[in-house]
Specification:
The complex is a heterodimer of chains A (364) and B (354). Chain A is built from 16 helices and 2 strands. By secondary structure, chain A is mostly helical. In chain A, α12 crosses α13. Chain A is flat and about 105 Å long. Chain B is mostly helical. Chain B has a single domain, classed as MetI-like fold, CATH 1.10.3720. Chain B is 67% helix and 8% strand. Chain B starts with a strand and ends in a 9-residue tail after the last helix. Classes of the chains: A mainly alpha (364), B mainly alpha (354).
Chain lengths: 364, 354
């Protein structure tokens, strides 16, 4: 074998020509080995597995999207599986026009954004307090935070509703106000006065401000873990310069915690977006429907209601074959309408969520 | 004049001249100041605990020992002692069964979710095309399979189940395939012959049918494992390679110990998540069966009216019974969480950091 030829191309550049093995030998060496076969088989296996799992996850949405373009006769026709015989947008049209979709969308956006903002800020404060300050009862408070994470919502639903709807007889403060001023203070469901229309806000935001909203225990936990990982030296230097704890929090800790805060905000926002527990506990209910309730995406009266135009168009009832499936398809269409803004936001923000979790300090 | 410890100044004959506390230092010590700031930071939570959540929790706990009836005029409470608890264990036909079944399914589901999410995290940790897209899709159910969407889906499944006799939850195609596969192989017979036992078969088939649940509930766990895997130093793997360890050995000797803290976190998260999920079968039993036709409340309790002194027989309030059963379930799950945490702590390996 000859020595490699070295050619000087320019002042500071050389080219070395090695003698290469023939093409066939190279191909044989690369592709006809056990390692290559194993590699290809493994990659195919991996791809099939990933695509399969993605299919399992996406199938409900795929079938909902397919169903949303169908007309009622498609559900009576056994030959129609995914593609409608006569694709229309009528389901979307009637849900949007009849059920105040855009109003509900706007309301839901405002409620979700404000709730998420309040919850993120409050949970960050509480998490920071629990992570970085030693005081009596800290461990007890943290234990309570974990406890709130563990209690299922259904356990507190009825007491919560009773507490706020009969605030004047069930809550010590309500009783006190009733005794002192003689006014009956009641919130939310079950009241007919007009101001009550907005009084569902009060318990909802009260829970958010105090860190007891939906899954706020989890947020406090996540943020506490994150803040525990922030080095103490940062704050100590701020204290040396005469910063108060709150100023340190807002000027030094918050900027560091932005990725984590964004994660918590996204969780809070999207869970509030689809929440039907608090919405139905305080804002709408069987007792409290019609004019007095506020249109929201997740409240039972609005987007999830079956549009009457579709009923009159097809004259359907429970006894007609395929009608149940059609009703399901329409509610699936409203699911798409509810989820669509979230999905669009998620596509843009999913990297941020992952980053936040990765830096949260749950890990190691 | 003598100054005593209780800040009183007395004259020589012992009469108190005046009380006076020494002038207080306005500046607190650093640790006290920090404690105070800490209290201020968690103040919203404490206020909420005392004025909002505490009373709610208290009234929920009160329902365990009282029969609570919500009427238009107000809420009435009758003390029943352990009557509700006794009812749950003795008179509820399905409660104990559903509790046992709930535990069984937890014991199968939690390891299944942990193993699945670890497996997927390891695969997703490898470099490949479309990794971000797969990761996003796997994470989608965390955002979407909750709240109203979950409620609508559950309702749709129930009606579809009533029509077709099968639940269409995205596993339709898969289950069909699996069923035909199973019938082809006649796995039941196969296992009967090798005498592994029908129980094992049942578990395996249950998991196949439940795959949508397992997949859609492993989003967060997968993410936690993924970030755990990324925090393992590549140098360790390199040294393993140099020493000639196979991928299999590397997994058991390096990856698994390094990821064990996350297994602990994930098991507890999965337990709590399964427990608080709306699809939890025990909770569904509690809310659907009690007071419904299938499990009528036919037990009475005696109540002495303090005003008239006469004994009144009353039906148990179904809300109290529900709350009682929920609390019993909460206690059991908490015990389970503690047991799991203690058991796993023995196996968790923490890398020493300097």
């Amino acid at each position: 074998m000859d020595a490699p030829k070295i050619k000087k191309e320019s002042k500071n550049k050389i080219r070395v020509d090695f003698e290469r093995a023939p093409l066939w030998e190279r191909v044989k060496g690369k592709y006809f080995s056990m390692k290559f076969v194993k590699d290809v088989v493994y990659k195919i296996f991996r791809l099939v597995l990933l695509v399969g799992v993605c299919f399992v996850i996406l199938y409900p949405y795929i079938s909902k999207i397919a169903d949303s373009f169908k007309i009622f006769p498609d559900f009576q026709d056994v030959t129609v599986i995914y593609i409608s015989t006569n694709p229309t947008l009528e389901q979307y049209k009637y849900i949007i026009t009849e059920n105040d979709y855009f109003l509900a969308l706007l309301n839901t956006f405002l409620v979700s954004a404000s709730t998420a903002f309040v919850q993120t800020l409050v949970c960050a404060l509480i998490g920071y307090g629990l992570a970085k300050f030693k005081f009596r009862g800290r461990n007890l408070l943290f234990a309570i935070v974990v406890l709130t994470m563990m209690l299922p919502q259904d356990l507190i639903r009825l007491p919560m509703q009773n507490m706020f709807c009969r605030f004047d007889t069930e809550h010590p403060i309500g009783i006190l106000i009733n005794k002192l001023f003689g006014t009956q203070v009641r919130f939310g469901v079950g009241n007919s006065e007009t101001w009550v229309k907005f009084s569902g806000f009060i318990p909802h935001y009260l829970l958010s401000i105090t860190g007891f909203g939906f899954r706020n225990g989890l947020f406090i936990f996540l943020l506490r873990q994150f803040f525990t990982g922030v080095p103490d030296e940062l704050e100590e230097s701020a204290y040396m310069d005469g910063c108060t704890a709150f100023r340190t929090f807002f000027q030094i800790i918050i900027p560091i915690a932005i990725p984590m805060l964004i994660t918590v905000f996204i969780f809070s926002f999207s869970w509030q977006w689809t929440d039907d527990f608090y919405i139905n506990t305080f804002w709408t209910s069987a007792h409290w429907t019609g004019d007095n309730s506020i249109p929201l995406l997740s409240s039972g009266n609005f987007v999830t209601k079956f549009p009457s135009q579709l009923t009159s168009m097809y004259g359907g009832s429970d006894k007609v074959v395929g009608w149940d499936a059609y009703v399901n398809a329409v509610s699936g269409t409203s699911t798409i309408l509810i989820a669509l803004p979230l999905i669009i936001a998620f596509i843009f923000l999913q990297n941020k969520i992952v980053q936040g979790i990765e830096r949260s300090g749950i890990v190691g | 004049m003598a100054k005593n410890k209780d800040f009183t100044t007395t004259s020589a004959d012992g009469t108190v001249l005046y009380h006076m506390a020494p002038k207080k230092k306005m500046r607190l010590t650093l640790s006290k100041r920090k404690a105070l700031s800490g209290w201020l930071l968690v103040l919203p939570f404490v206020i909420g605990l005392i004025f909002v959540y505490g009373p709610i929790l208290f009234s929920s706990l009160r329902a365990v020992f009282y029969s609570v009836e919500v009427k238009l005029t107000g809420i009435e409470y009758y003390f029943v002692g352990i009557g509700n608890i006794k009812w749950a264990f003795q008179d509820d036909l399905y409660f104990v069964d559903s509790l046992v079944n709930g535990f069984k399914s937890l014991l199968i589901q939690v390891p299944a979710i942990i193993i699945f999410s670890l497996f997927m995290a390891i695969i997703l940790n490898q470099k490949m095309r479309g990794r971000a897209a797969f990761r996003a899709i796997f994470f989608l159910p965390v955002i979407l399979s909750i709240g109203i969407i979950d409620t609508i889906d559950t309702n749709a499944q129930l009606t579809m189940a009533a029509i077709t006799g099968g639940i269409d939850d995205g596993t339709g195609a898969l289950t069909e395939g699996a069923n035909s596969f199973v019938s082809m192989m006649d796995l039941n017979n196969l296992f009967a012959n090798v005498q592994i036992g029908g129980g094992f078969m049942e578990i395996a088939m249950g998991l196949v049918n439940d795959i949508f649940n397992v997949v859609s509930r492993s989003g967060v766990q997968m993410l936690i494992f993924l970030s755990g895997l990324q925090s393992i130093s590549p140098a360790i793997y390199e040294s393993c390679q140099i020493d000639g360890a196979s991928a299999w050995e590397t997994f058991w000797k390096v990856t698994l110990p390094m990821i064990s803290p996350m297994i602990l976190v994930n098991s507890i998260y999965t337990l709590i998540d399964a427990f608080t999920a709306s699809s939890n079968k025990v909770i569904n039993h509690i809310f659907i069966n009690i007071g419904g036709n299938s499990n009528p409340i036919n037990s009475m309790y005696e109540y002495v009216d303090p005003a008239t002194g006469e004994t009144i027989h009353k039906l148990f309030s179904d809300n109290s019974l529900r709350t009682t059963e929920m609390w019993i379930y909460v206690v059991f799950i908490s015990l389970l969480v503690v047991v799991v945490a203690l058991l796993m702590k023995a196996f968790v390996f923490y890398q020493k950091r300097d």
